């Protein structure tokens, strides 16, 4: 990790300041297993406390760690009873079914390239590119992932790179004095790739620091 931090500090003065403010890198990892991906589905589009409550109820019913058999034994009524939507229940059952029949093979994932992992995981209903990227970062410990669809990373880039640069211009400074609020326009994937180009091969590490810079709760 020392090598990654030295590279990021040397290549990007803005990120260097963020790293020095946030402090040591303390990313929390989960195992690259079925349980982690099922948990990620439960947590999709929910705030932390609500997701934790639903997940705990679900795990108590299905058994922990989560397994395909434990999920497939549950009825739709049981899944609704713990707070899971019909759509999310269908995602969990599809994940369980594809894992049970071998279409999804977690044992293969550590040997696959990032794009191949994303392709393999997104065959499951409800698993999009963002969820697959989170699995790459937080379960497979891949160091060079840039989730261009992640709101927290986009917001941090806007704050530290896009908006900070705009604020230096006299035009925007005058607008600020007049009390006019600038509309937030988050960076596009192409802009994000450009900003993050110098971070490679440690873009995951950089993203963690961007999340922390916003006090965004990481997975």
Low-pLDDT stretches: none
- Beta-strand residue percentage: under 5%
CATH class of the largest domain: Mainly Alpha
Distance between the termini: 19 Å
SSE succession: HHHHHHHHHHHHH
Rg: 20 Å
The third-level CATH topology of the largest domain is Endonuclease III, domain 1
* CATH homology superfamily name of the largest domain: Hypothetical protein, domain 2
**Average pLDDT, all residues:** 91
Largest sheet: none
User: How many alpha or pi helices?
Assistant: 13
> Residue share in helices?
55-70%
Query: What structural class do the secondary elements suggest?
Result: mainly alpha
- Total domain count: 2
Number of strands: 0
CATH architecture of the largest domain: Orthogonal Bundle
Break the fold down into its secondary structure elements and pairings.
Elements (H helix, E strand, L loop, with lengths): L1 H10 L1 H10 L11 H10 L4 H15 L5 H5 L3 H6 L4 H15 L13 H8 L7 H10 L12 H17 L2 H8 L11 H8 L6 H11 L6
Structure description:
This protein has 219 residues and is mainly alpha-helical. The protein has two domains: 2-25 and 148-213, Endonuclease Iii, domain 2; 34-138, Orthogonal Bundle (Endonuclease III, domain 1), CATH 1.10.340. Helix content is 61%, strand content 0%. The protein has helices at 2-11, 13-22, 34-43, 48-62, 68-72, 76-81, 86-100, 114-121, 129-138, 151-167, 170-177, 189-196, 203-213. Helix 3 (34-43) packs antiparallel against helix 7 (86-100) and helix 8 packs across helix 9 (129-138).
Name some characteristics of this structure:
219 residues; Endonuclease III, domain 1; mainly alpha; Endonuclease Iii, domain 2
